[in-house]
Amino acid sequence: MRAKYWADFGIGIVVVAACVVGWFTGYFQNSNDYSEIEKMLILVLAFSVLFGLRVDMKGANRWEAISAAFLGVVFLIAVVLLVFL
Q1: Which of 81, 63, 60, 71 lies closest to 11, judged by CA?
Q2: CA–CA gap between residue 67 and residue 76 (Å, rounded)
Q3: What does the domain layout of the chain look like in residue ranges?
Q4: CA-CA distance, 51 to 44, in Å (whole number)?
Q5: Which SS3 state, helix, strand or coil, does residue 65 take?
Q6: Alpha-carbon gap, residue 44 to 21, rounded angstroms
Q7: 82 FRET partner, CA 20 to 30 A, in 31, 44, 68, 73?
Q8: Which of 14, 8, 2 is nearest to 68 (CA)?
């Protein structure tokens, strides 16, 4: 597996750890003041990042694709936690 995909996997694990710590410390219970339009724009940005990961996976082997998909799913969960909770 190429180093870039190991980095994707490592970043995904760090984001999961940050989400768990934020959940248990009550960070996500702080209300945000995003309007509905801002929330939709943030989701569009998140999905565009996921599309970029999908395009980046062309020519990747199975484990590289799994690491990039893991990073994408973790990123989307983190965005939803930050914006909608």
Answers
A1: 71
A2: 14
A3: 3-84
A4: 10
A5: helix
A6: 26
A7: 68
A8: 8
Q: What is the pTM of this model?
A: 0.64
pLDDT (tens digit, 9 = 90+) per residue, 7-26? 877 888 888 888 888 878 87
Residues whose CB is less than 8 angstroms from the CB of residue 31 and which lie 6 or more positions away in sequence, other chains included: none
Residue spans of alpha helices (H) in the chain: 3-25, 36-56, 62-84
Q: How far is CA 55 from CA 9, 26, 33, 41, 79, in A?
A: 17, 36, 33, 21, 20
Report pLDDT digits (tens) over 34-73. 777 777 777 787 777 777 777 767 777 888 778 878 888 8
